[in-house]
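Following up on my earlier thread - several people asked me to post the actual chain instead of describing it. Fair enough. Here it is, all 299 residues.
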Amino acid sequence: MITRRALVLGGLGGIGAAAATGGTAYALVESEVLPGKVRLDRALGKCGDAPAPPAASVEPERVTWRSAHRRAAVTATIVPPAAGRPLRGLPVAVALHGTGDDGSSLVRKLALDHYLPDAVARGGVPPFALVSVDGGPDTYWHPRAGGDDPLGMIVDELLPRLRERGARTGRVGAIGWSMGGYGALLLARRLGPARTAAVVAASPALFASYEDAVAANRRSFDGAADYERHDVFRALDELKGAPLRVDCGTSDPFAGRVREFRERVRPEGGLEGGCHDAAFWRRQLRRELAFLGHRLGGR
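Reply from S.P.:
Thanks for posting it. Predicted structure:
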C-alpha cells in the first residue's frame, strides 16, 4: 500500500517507487495521499497548469441561515452573472463543493466570480446565477444516519429562499466537483427530470464498491447499505431526461470509473489530459458554464 510517509518523505523518486508497488487507486482520492500523486503527475507533465482567471469579476453575496436539515448554520454564496444584477428573473445553478471545502472556498478556488461574468459578457452565455452552498466537509451530499441531510437543505431550504427573491427555480441546474460532482448526480435524482435543467459532474467521486469508498474516506458512507442506496450506477434510469455533462482528467484516480459511467450514460463532455485538481477544473469551466447557461436560458 502507498503510505503517506512514503509520499511525503520520499520526494518524487519515492513517490514513483511507491506507486510502482501498487496500492488502492481510489485511496489516493479525497485523502492526504492525493497531493503526492498530483505532484508526481505534474512532474510528468500530466496535470497541466491552472489558467489565470478572466479579468471580469463580480462581488458574491453571502446568505446565512440555521438549516433544519443540516442541523447547523449554512452559508450560500451567490455569484451573479454581472455586477449589480439582482436574482429576480434569473435561472439558478447550484454549485456543490468537494471534500474539505465549503461554498465560499469553492468560489475562491475556482474563481467562479470571474468565470461566470466572463462567460455571460464575452462568451454569449445566457445569464444565470451560480449558488454555492455549504454541504459539510465529507457528507458526500446524501442524507446521513446522524440526521445531516444536505440534499434536503438544497431542495427544502435553499431553493425556496432563492424563489422568494424572485429567482426562477422551477427548473434548476447543478454543477459539482469531486464529492460535489457525485452530489450533483444525486441532486438530479432527487429533483427528477421535470425540475432538472442541466447537470455538470466534474471528476465525480464514483467508487467501484463500498470498500473503495471507505478506503478513500472512512466517513463517505454510513455502511454498505447506505452506499448501495446512493450508488448512481444502480439508478441510471433516474438520470434519463436530464441534460448531463461529465468531465474528468485522464490522470485522475476516478478516470476508470468515470469512463465506465460515460459508456453507460453517454453524457456530453469527456476525458482529457489532467488531474484531480483545480487546474483541470478551471480549464473545463468555460464549456461547462456554457452547457448550463444555454439549457437554463432555454426555459
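The chain has a mean pLDDT of 89. That should answer part of your original question.
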